[in-house]
Design brief:
Blueprint lengths: L2 E7 L3 H15 L3 E3 L8 E6 L4 H20 L4 E6 H13 L5 E3 L7 H11 L3 E3 L21 E5 L1 E2 L10 H4 L4 E2 L2 H13 L4 E5 L16 H9 L6 E5 L8 H9 L6 E3 L7 H6 L6 H14 L4 E8 L6 H14 L3 E6 L17 H24 L5 E9 L6 E5 L5 E5 L8 E9 L4 E5 L2
Parallel strand pairs: 1-2, 1-3, 3-4, 4-5, 5-6, 7-10, 10-11, 12-13, 13-14, 17-19
Antiparallel strand pairs: 8-9, 15-16, 15-18, 16-17, 18-19
The chain binds 5'-deoxyadenosine and iron/sulfur cluster.
Length: 439
């Protein structure tokens, strides 16, 4: 009889990718995925700790899982991901129903570790960092013949932005050898994948830890040569490492989608300095202007934070002003939260919670207006969409994304799944577009 595996994922696309790897590895061990934790023999909670809210969500979820363990004694509960890496030991002490805690570099060893826990019956914790091991030699199967896949090209981060816990929980930056990445993508394309998103905490410093001198633009060029692959995306980029050579790729490489996610975090030079971001607002704006000169329809999205220690009304206004100057396609915005172990954890978290909340609301309202304006402008336009599968909203509709990464829903038949179609946009909403296939 197959054993049930339930995986719950929090956080970024890197975690989504890691969860897929977990599923692929445990399928080889005879597990099959279940959608209800009550039916599982193994539950994996893949966690995030980038902000306090994410960490709190996981903690309350873990508390609730306690009930399941009481009913099913041989159930194994695994805590994985960034929160596990950061606070695994203290969580294990507090939560006796946890069986296994694994850090971000231990995914590959998960099947062995589960077997060990089953055999000994004792809880286990494995948090060590390792080089190379994080890189996967084999491509996991894309689930349900999805035409889009994530491909990890590097792990870790050496930037040490003062608010960020990532360098501590994901470890130092390490790039994956190009041949390994190319082999994985070729294999995915053979299985029907048409679009890949290259993942890394800071993809544009790709290659710095390799000895063959390959750069990120060169990697992109080689990926473009793969026949059958239609689209390439990447995330996340750091403004300070966005080279002229990389920007030129948006004009030069037709498979590279015209969208860049380029977190700016704050529009105030004082705050950017305190964050150790390594660029000024003027440099950021200059890069966007350059990108738009090269590729006029490029979509620009970013991450931004409010309420970093020392952020005054004037600093916040500088953030709003930068938004006005750039007019982002979309923004992911957050309230600063203190993360243990970071440099900023030593600064006084002096912006009151209600001021953070108020600033976030103002910022999000402004962004909604900008997003709405951009979506409205697309009504009547023809856009190319990769049909990804059934839409969540309606059984009749399919869903896909434009090259600029906007979600479009439209009627389509199943034989169009996985294909590139031209869609005429008929209606705009804040979070998606609606249209109809015209070719
Ligand atoms: N508080 C709030 N937001 C944070 N981010 C990272 N660390 C923190 C923190 N301590 C945000 C940044 C980053 C995104 C992934 O999360 O905007 O780009
Ligand atoms: Fe965190 Fe900065 Fe690294 Fe991004 S670049 S992961 S924000 S330290």
């Amino acid at each position: 009889m197959t054993k049930g595996l339930y995986v719950e994922t929090y956080g970024c696309q890197m975690n989504v990718r890691d969860s897929r790897q977990i599923v692929a590895l445990l399928k080889e061990e005879g597990y099959s995925e279940v959608s209800d934790p009550k039916l599982a023999d193994v539950i994996v909670i893949n966690t995030c700790t980038v902000r306090e809210k994410a960490a709190q969500k996981v903690m309350s979820r873990l508390g609730r899982l306690l009930g399941l363990k009481k009913r099913k004694e041989d159930l194994i509960i695994v805590l994985a991901g960034c929160l596990a890496q950061q606070r695994g030991e203290s969580i294990l002490k507090r939560m006796a129903h946890l069986d296994l805690v694994i850090g971000t570099h231990q995914i590959r060893h998960l099947p062995t570790l589960i077997r060990k826990v089953r055999y000994t019956g004792a809880p286990l914790i494995e948090l060590s960092f390792s080089t190379g091991l994080y890189c996967y030699p084999e491509a996991p199967l894309p689930e349900d013949k999805e035409p889009c896949a994530f491909v990890t090209i590097m792990q870790g981060c050496n930037n040490f932005c003062t608010y960020c816990v990532v360098p501590y929980v994901r470890g130092p930056e390490e790039s994956r050898p190009a041949e390994e990445i190319l082999a994985e993508i070729r294999c995915l394309v053979e299985k029907g994948v048409r679009e890949v998103t290259l993942l890394g905490q800071n993809v544009n410093s790709y290659g710095q830890t390799l000895t063959d001198g390959i750069t990120f633009p060169q990697l992109l060029e080689r990926i473009c040569e793969i026949e059958g692959l239609e689209r390439i995306r990447f995330t996340t980029s750091h403004p300070k490492d966005l080279s002229e050579e990389l920007m030129a790729c948006f004009a030069r490489l037709p498979k590279l989608c015209p969208h860049i996610h380029l977190p700016f975090q704050s529009g105030s030079n004082k705050i950017l300095r305190l964050m150790n971001r390594g660029y000024t607002r003027e440099e950021y704006i200059e890069k966007i202007v350059h990108l738009r000169n090269i590729c006029p329809h490029i979509a620009i999205t970013a991450d931004v934070m409010v309420g970093f220690p020392g952020e005054t009304e004037e600093d916040f206004c500088a953030t709003l002003d930068l938004m006005e100057k750039i007019r982002f396609d979309n923004l992911f915005s957050f309230k600063y939260s203190r993360r243990e172990g970071t440099y900023a954890a030593n600064m006084v978290d002096d912006v009151p919670a209600e001021v953070k909340a108020e600033r976030l609301t103002i910022l999000q309202k402004k962004q909604e207006a900008h997003t709405w304006e951009k979506h409205q402008a697309l009504v009547g336009e023809k856009v190319e969409v990769l049909v990804e599968g059934r839409s969540k909203n309606s059984l009749m509709d399919a869903t896909g994304r434009t090259p600029t990464n906007k979600i479009v829903n439209f009627p389509a038949s199943e034989d169009q799944y996985g294909k590139l179609v031209t869609v005429k946009i008929t209606q705009a909403f804040l979070h998606s577009l609606r249209g109809e296939i015209i070719e």
